[in-house]
Amino acid sequence: MKTARGHGMIRATAIRSENDAFQIVSSLKGNREKRQRHGEVFVEGIESIKQLAASGHGVTRFLFRAGAPLSAWAQSLMEAHPRAARFELTEALYLKLCDKSEPSELLATGRLPKARLEDFPVGAESVVLLFDRPSDLGNFGTLVRTCDAFGVDAVFLAGHGVDPFDPKAIRASLGSVFRLPIIAVESSEALARWVQAQSAAVGLQVIGSDSGGSHRLSDLDLRPPLMFVVGNEARGMSVNLKSLCGKIASIPVVGSVNSLNVACAGSILLWEWHRKKPDGKGRSK
Questions:
Q1: Residue 33 backbone phi and psi in degrees, to 5
Q2: CA–CA distance, 199 with 179 (Å, rounded to integer)
Q3: Which residue ranges does the chain devote to CATH 3.40.1280.10?
Q4: Which of 10, 16, 109, 222 places its Cα 20 to 30 Å from the Cα of 80?
Q5: Given this model, what pLDDT does residue 79 score?
Q6: What's the CA gap between 190 and 204, in Å, rounded?
Q7: How far is CA 128 from CA 47, 101, 154, 195, in A?
Q8: Which segments within the chain are labelled E, that is strand?
Q9: CATH number attached to the domain at 117-275
Q10: Which residue ranges does the chain devote to CATH 3.30.1330.30?
Q11: Which of 259, 262, 284, 260 is nearest to 271 (CA)?
Q12: Taking all residues of the chain, what is their mean pLDDT, rounded to a whole number?
């Protein structure tokens, strides 16, 4: 059934039970295989929805609660995406889809972004970050958010790891997963060929991060083009990835721990590159 509500008469299909439309959205939230099959992602949180909407990947659905007022922002966002389906859910069904303790007024689904390694040539000023087998959704999302903040051009994923478009990763990144290419590397052989080609073409530097690295990060020349490599949270970088690195940097620590959380280490790598940028924009005063 269709309902009309609010300013501009937002029209929506009412969902009063766990019907097929509800089940599809629920599967996009909780099932990686279903996200791949449908080519869609589930998005919760105002900032993440804003980034999805601004990215151009395409919003496919908006969902909201029956009887709850919609802000001017929510209504204008839906009006700006007229091809997206609109669904009005009962309070119980809406809350069943929400993970946040204070749910936002909208939920959304969108097209699953797709990017391929072979379609990403490196330019003279390019900086990319490769995350080896990320196992924690929060760490992954946080590091993607940092990459977005510092202007990194792409994030590569090596090996089996978390789904970069899991709703928890999207929320941790504040939607940054929609703002830069997230590229899953098919194999170590494909990555090695790509690195070799980019090194020959534009002089790509590959710099890894490890607590036992032989080079202090602060001593390195971090001029692009660059690929930073950070390892798995528990196991560090794989042997194959270490073999691709021209240098492996260490971040000095003085406390009782001998290593940093991978999201923290990656953020420090990127800040050091940003700080040393020759245009001076990132230099500390």
A1: -65, -40
A2: 26
A3: 117-275
A4: 16
A5: 95
A6: 16
A7: 24, 35, 5, 12
A8: 2-5, 10-15, 40-44, 59-65, 85-89, 107-111, 127-132, 154-158, 182-184, 205-209, 215-216, 226-230, 247-250
A9: 3.40.1280.10
A10: 2-111
A11: 284
A12: 91
CATH T-level assignment (fold) for domain 2-111: 60s Ribosomal Protein L30; Chain: A; (3.30.1330)
User: Can you tell me which residue has the tokens 């699953």?
Assistant: 112
Query: How would DSSP label each residue in 52-112?
Result: HHHHTS-EEEEEEETT----HHHHHHHHH-TTSEEEEE-HHHHHHH--SSS--S-EEEEEP
Q: What does each C-alpha distance from 232 to 27, 184, 217, 265 come to in angstroms?
A: 28, 15, 19, 12
**Measuring CA to CA, which residue among 261, 262, 270 is closest to residue 150?**
270
pLDDT at residue 1 greater than cutoff 80: no
Per-residue model confidence as pLDDT tens digits over 40-79: 999 999 999 999 999 989 999 999 999 999 999 999 999 9
Radius of gyration of the chain (CA): 21
CA angle 65, 69, 75 (to 5 degrees): 90
pLDDT digits (tens, 9 = 90+) for 169-202: 999 999 999 999 999 998 999 999 999 999 999 9
